[in-house]
Amino acid sequence: MRSSCARVPDAAPTRPECRAADRPDGARQSASDPDPSSGTPAALEVALVKTSSLGDVIHALPVVSDILTALPAARVDWVVEEPFAELPALHPGVATIHRVALRRWRKAPLSAATRAEWSRFRAGFRVRRYDLILDLQGLLKSAFLALQGRGPRAGFDRASAREPLAALLYQRRFRVDQKQHAIHALRSLAAQALGYRVEGLPRFALAPPPLAGLAQMPGGALAPGSIVLLHMTARPEKQWPVERWRALAQRLDSAGRDFVVPWGNDAERARAEAIAGGLPRARVPQRLSLGQCATLLAHARAVVGLDTGLTHLAAAFERPLVFMVPDTPRWPRFRAEPFWLPQMASFGRAGTMPDVDEVWSALAQLDAVG
């Protein structure tokens, strides 16, 4: 596995280190604010705030690897929405996960239950005084959550934050080019805030869930080494026609390959059944939790997926991937493509989606249907 940080030459045996980075143009900091990048303590304590959504939380995971490569004795905690809390838990470098439920709390903000849960979150978040609380989200809600902790706060500057007013709640602000893949932007922000230089491909370093979990899936065991078809996507313009999914499923079945077609809502379940119905090698499981999806993907032979959070999770586990997303001015593919994957076939660069023969050929080249 390649290091994400530059190796510094030394006469003595060395380990990968990160060089102190020059402050890029546009990075601003008040002279009176604490700066953990100056004279950084060996046991730096950092809290990351990245609450949602599925793909966004996944894209923030390499930041943990970068921090621990640059500062091996650091402690990294994470603030996240409860539906996505299983994601940072996959990274062995995350020490404590502080769960919030803003989406649920908004429905009854003044209820006794909401107030009690908020108080528990805030008390737990304030147990430690952090050397840095880094907001990777750039929203008012995430900046407000960062404000609940103890320690100096940092984040995107007004020109970089998705909601510019969020920058007013940080003591240290940094300019980041947002016209790049989200992983590049997040790694850049953390490197500026903590004073190291990031180089190389992102490293997710996730711990795969135990293989035994496949035998405990709702509705029955799923076969290890299955091919997973991730047909789900929130936007119709990113969908692959169901008749092509069906044709691909028929080829997998004829080739004797086990495959799984998961789903997350009623419409997706109907599509999954249309794709897999009547095929002996197909499994349409009951609705899986995020953790169960992680188990399925971590042990998949290969994945065929659209631009959806679970596809990015498969890429984080470095599974062989056929990735399909049409490149359009509104949704440029550079913001989504898993560029770090050594085994990936990518379609949609010309704004058009592949035919079944192209996907089958890609799976063959990935040694998934030989």
Strand count:
13
Content-based structural category:
alpha/beta
Total number of helices: 10
- Biggest pleated sheet: 7 strands, mixed
Which consecutive residue ranges, at least 5 long each, have pLDDT under 50? 1-34
User: Fraction of residues in helices?
Assistant: 25-40%
For the termini, the CA-CA separation is: 27 Å
In N-to-C order, the SSE pattern is EEHEEHHEHEEHEHEHEHEHEEH
Overall pLDDT metric: 89
Compute the CA-based radius of gyration. 22 Å
Shape assignment: globular
Beta-strand percentage range: 5-15%
- The strand order across the widest sheet is 1-7-6-5-2-3-4
Descriptive overview:
With 370 residues, the protein is of the alpha/beta class. Helices cover 29% and strands 14% of the residues. It is built from ten helices and 13 strands. It has helices at 54-70, 102-105, 112-125, 140-147, 182-194, 242-254, 266-276, 290-298, 309-316, 356-365; strands at 28-29, 45-49, 75-81, 94-100, 132-135, 153-156, 172-174, 227-230, 259-260, 282-283, 302-305, 321-324, 344-347. The strands form two sheets. Strands 1-7-6-5-2-3-4 form a seven-stranded mixed sheet, sandwiched between helices. Strand 11, helix 9 and strand 12 form a beta-alpha-beta unit. Helix 1 runs parallel beside helix 9 (309-316) and helix 6 packs across helix 7 (266-276). It is globular. Mean pLDDT is 89; it is low at 1-34.
